[in-house]
Design brief:
Two copies of one chain form a homodimer. The first copy, chain A, is of the alpha/beta class. The first copy, chain A, is built from ten helices and eight strands. In chain A, helix 1 packs parallel to helix 10 and helix 2 crosses helix 3. The C terminus of chain A is likely disordered. At the A-B interface, helix 8 of A face helix 8 of B.
Chain lengths: 294, 294
Amino acid sequence: MTSYAECPTKTVGAANGAEYAYRELGDGTVPLVLLQHFRGNLDYWDPPLIDALAARRRLVLFDNTGVGGSSGTTPSTIAQMAHDAIAFLDAMGVEEVDLLGFSIGSFVAQEIALIRPALVRAIVLASAAPKGAAGMHGWAPEVIDAVGKREPDPNGYLRVFFSPSEASQRAGLATLQRIFSRADPDVPTSWETRQHQYDAVLEWGEPNHALLQRLSAITQPVFVANGDSDPMILPRYSYLLAGLIPNASVKLYPDAAHGFLFQHHEEFAADVEAFLGKSSSTRDQINAPDGRSA
Amino acid sequence: MTSYAECPTKTVGAANGAEYAYRELGDGTVPLVLLQHFRGNLDYWDPPLIDALAARRRLVLFDNTGVGGSSGTTPSTIAQMAHDAIAFLDAMGVEEVDLLGFSIGSFVAQEIALIRPALVRAIVLASAAPKGAAGMHGWAPEVIDAVGKREPDPNGYLRVFFSPSEASQRAGLATLQRIFSRADPDVPTSWETRQHQYDAVLEWGEPNHALLQRLSAITQPVFVANGDSDPMILPRYSYLLAGLIPNASVKLYPDAAHGFLFQHHEEFAADVEAFLGKSSSTRDQINAPDGRSA
């Protein structure tokens, strides 16, 4: 199988007029669609994680509108990002997906599940928080200082995505080396993308306790995961998601921060695979007309 | 040290006119006060857990108003139970406590923390849920059938407080043997206590999303714990508490149900001790005028 490091970038035009850059690998009927973090493009998915996930299923990764190699203007709301992601999926001709949303990608995943639940089979929320949670109105000053500046640098990434321990920093350096060693890299994300995405983060983070109740309408099985010391989206928001989504499990990974899924890529890929395997067999059982497992 | 199994029952009269049955053991300045579960009296605290906790600190256990050996009428609201617990603590002359609330005792603990925060240093919530959470309006039919009948029996207790596994059921039998082998047992709880406590459970469980926001006002450090397969108070409510209380940690114990704290008494006592030790040293540090640890 092609490694994600060599997986070519393709494009598809959607009904909304945008041309989306995407990559796909692996085989399967219901693809796992990945939704990327703040300022990340296609390259910022660490290849060992993607390869481990693609060993068992079809994966679809894309730059949302205005991000990296995709055309258009990055929207300033998570809701519009969700509508755009749906437009991309419609253009790809997929009718059912599993979602893995990472950081602001987890916000988009929740929004998609609420806007078009029929599209979504199961959801992985990584380094996630619900809309309206108190204390989420913008990243902490040391976080936005580290990853929000005009010219992003490796030190800022390492400070937010990895814990201060030697082991975590070493894992972070390895991730960065893989991200930056790609032969045909994606287009870097723009300052406009940074600004509009952060506008969307702020709107998502306006404290509004009533909005938390939306989570009760996410009926899909959900796996919530984070590093135990994420400074960008605190682990308590993972508990909040798991407490309000009716059918959710939660796991915090040790000595890890925002990028726990890259640091613990083997363990996380195995956990995701176990979760998606269970979720799809449950759904097949429910859907099988004679009640037997399909 | 006296084991809890031989610890004598004493009484104290409170300003509200009630005569409270209580037991105390261990030494220390700030006592850990235990708040009991639905229909439980003083005997329903499994001695090995109590002995392990009392090895390092002063413990106070009591029957709340109308329960077991205490006089008066069991209140029909958690709020009144909290006021009565405060009256008992006032009668005992304690000015600061740690709380360990188990099941409906965890409801009372939250209410005390909100009514009189200055009294409470740190809180352990075992098999717990917040007021107003959806899905908590009464126990599930199989649970109330098992533990709500007029004459409680060991099988009902084993079905709710322990998981179906052989190991958990064996632990449950051992707990029951210890509970029922006391030489001078407490007065059994009455049918009126059962009815009024269940009225209070129903009121606590009226779904009201807005009420969940109360938890943001619990500023004490909180340790939330439950068995991973509690049928009475689902583990997701532990996540909900940990997601909404600003300073909370959470742990689910494996292959365990409502009575996880008896089944895993050694591990749970060690976790509680680590939590309370950390909480008290933090508070001492904050209170020390020169900023050094007291």
